[in-house]
Amino acid sequence: MAIGILEETFYGYPPCWWKYRAIPFVAVFSLVYYLAVFVFQYLSLDVGLFERMPRLLLRVLYLAICVGISHLLCELNAPDVLMTVPVTLWTTCGGLYLMVQTREWDVRGGPLPKLEKFGMRGKVVFITGANAGVGRETVSQLVAKGAIVILACRSEEKALDAMNVII
């Protein structure tokens, strides 16, 4: 008898006592998301938080939708299988897809600029064999990233030729 009471109620509350909190939760976060997209996309405001805030709002909105769907299934008294399988699929597959897409694409529709992992500006690098082949390509990449490169070549003429080609 006590087990049946615990199944029907959750510590004295009805089984779906939080269903009234799910609808405002989803509505508020979707409203905030669309407002942020409007402000950043259509008004073209360049704020330092633009690169992170829309992606964060997308993730919060997605989680709010998943919570709202699970609450809706609970409200409809769906069987446990219908409540667990779709919610698990939505949160894993859809969440991974959303995270991949929001990291690669900006809200405005263009690809994000690739950020370099290691900044080389102001660092001193010593490269041997810098006048040909892999050494020359390494020097050109390091110079493009702002590094101070010291060339080590067999002769001064080869070093000057490599400098002229790279610069």
UniProtKB/TrEMBL annotation:
Transmembrane segments: 22-44, 56-73, 79-100
GO terms assigned for molecular function: oxidoreductase activity
Keyword Membrane: yes
InterPro entries attached to this UniProt entry: NAD(P)-bd_dom_sf (IPR036291), SDR_fam (IPR002347)
Alphabetically ordered keywords of this record: Membrane, Oxidoreductase, Transmembrane, Transmembrane helix
Gene3D superfamilies per UniProt: NAD(P)-binding Rossmann-like Domain
Protein name: Uncharacterized protein
